[in-house]
Amino acid sequence: MNIRRFFGKNARDALAQVKQALGEDAIIVANRSVNGGTEIMAMLESDIETTDSQQAEPQPDHGRSLLDFVTGKEQPRPASQPATRAPVAPAAMEEDPASEHAIMDMLKQHSEQQEQAYQLATQTLEDKMQGMMQEMRHMRSHFETQMSAMTWQHHLQHSPAKSKVLSTLLSASFSAALSRQIAEKIPQHIDVNKAPMWAKEVISRNLHTLDDEDALLDRGGVYALVGPTGVGKTTTTAKLAARYVMKHGTQNLGLITTDSYRIGGYEQLRIYGKILGVMVHAVKDEEDLKIALNELKGKHMILIDTVGVSQRDQAVTEQLSMLSRAESPIQKLLCLNATSTGETLTDVMRSYKKHEMAGCIVTKLDEAAAIGNVLDVLIRERMRLFYTTSGQRVPEDIEVADKQALVERVLTPHQASLPYQYLDEELPLVISSMMQSQGEAHA
Predict the structure, then answer these.
(1) Which ranges carry the SRP54-type proteins GTP-binding domain (predicted)?
(2) What residues have CB less than 8 Å from 428, skipping those under 6 apart?
């Protein structure tokens, strides 16, 4: 099959070349517009007939003769017999004033059909390739998980103490990343029964808490409680205010709330302020905050209750930037809900930590079945813990963070945690799967 290529400055010129070289029986195979003109691919019909005669079954005719192409005719031809054509006047193409437009229209239509067929074939190929790549990724992920599990199984079989530490921390809701990091530092020859105590000491050393509340209250300053909606900022603000009043009285305490949009937000703190004998200033924007701070500049301690904002809301940056631009330095305390998942706590911490948190307060300890998730994020993010709260009573249900009590609680098994205890043979696959998931989340 001999296909030839012809190039002309326009369709008329290219077709004239085809006619001159191959005659009236030429078959147009393809055409397209190129820079500077038109390109046509054509061949002799005799080449197709020779090929067709060698086939066991007749094949469809995919080309058009030069005559049919120019005149726009579509006449089917049996594979075994050439089509009969009427003679064409030699100057038909050259003398017909409408032929140029007709030729260009047919060439355009033919090109569009070819382009559509090409796009369909390309899209089908891309879909198949994407499916294959997705399947290969799944296979690779499964293979990596299995290989990682085998590696961990080897390590744990040769280190029962490491296995014990991992099992203890994972069952206490610590992340796989921190659990692995701690377990890898365990002394080689430590007794397996002493492994949990060793882990407890490591956690205690890395959990930073408020050293001296008296120093904090005596030093004074401006503190803003920030965090997501529903974490308990307003109640915690009232509890801190009550602790200050019990030590220094009401004269040197100022209360501000930016939570003027939520129904009952200002009213709740106003009631607490009335009980304590302290006026509450409500502010709506940066200018109001500036005025309120100026009115309270003689106060030894100022506490600001802020509106709750989701960690994924752009309003976080707007609110914290407003606090940072205040003339008086404002120290920000992040409130974390102990009942939240480790993933949510990490998300909250990283969103708010960008804006220089002085420390944090963990709320709702009384509602949390396990607190490993919150201690985990405090240790990984190196955030100092000031206070913990365990109820709604003011001022009883708040206390300075007790490091030893928290560590003792987190590593003491309780009834609710029993279904979440891992068997030794489950640990390798669990650890490898958790590590892989965390790696994909950071990718």
Answers:
(1) 220-412
(2) 148, 149, 150, 151, 152, 153, 156
d(CA 385, CA 402): 9
Count Cα atoms within 13 angstroms, Cβ side, for 14.
Answer: 27
The answer to whether the CB of 192 falls within 8 A of the CB of 160 is yes
H helix runs in 158-309, sequence order: 160-171, 176-183, 195-206, 213-219, 233-248, 265-276, 286-295
Could you give the 3-state DSSP secondary structure of residue 90? Answer: coil
Residues near 246 by Cβ (< 8 Å), separated by ≥ 6? Answer: 395
The β-bridge partners of 362 are 336, 388
R_g of the chain computed on alpha carbons: 39
What are 25's two structure tokens? Answer: 């029986």
Q: Which residue has the tokens 């109001």?
A: 288
Beta-strand pair 330-337/385-389 = unpaired
Q: What is the pLDDT of residues 124-139, one digit of tens each?
A: 777 777 777 777 776 7
Report the SS3 class of residue 333: strand
Instruction: Give the residues across from 221 on adjacent strands.
Output: 301
What distance in Å separates the CA atoms of residue 139 and residue 423, rounded to the nearest whole number? 26
Distance CA 205, CA 141 (A): 36
Which portions of the chain are predicted below pLDDT 50? 56-62, 77-95, 97, 415, 440, 442-443
Edge-to-edge strand order for the sheet containing 301-305?
280-282, 253-257, 301-305, 221-226, 330-337, 357-363, 385-389, 398-400
pLDDT at 19: 86
Alpha helix (H) ranges present in 302-426? Answer: 315-324, 342-353, 372-380, 403-410
> N- to C-terminal Cα distance for the chain?
53
pLDDT at residue 281, rounded to an integer: 93
Domains and CATH numbers, the chain: 4-96 (no CATH), 207-412 (3.40.50.300)
pLDDT digits (tens, 9 = 90+) for 266-281: 788 889 899 999 999 9
DSSP string covering 213-247? HHHHHHH-EEEEEE-STTS-HHHHHHHHHHHHHHH
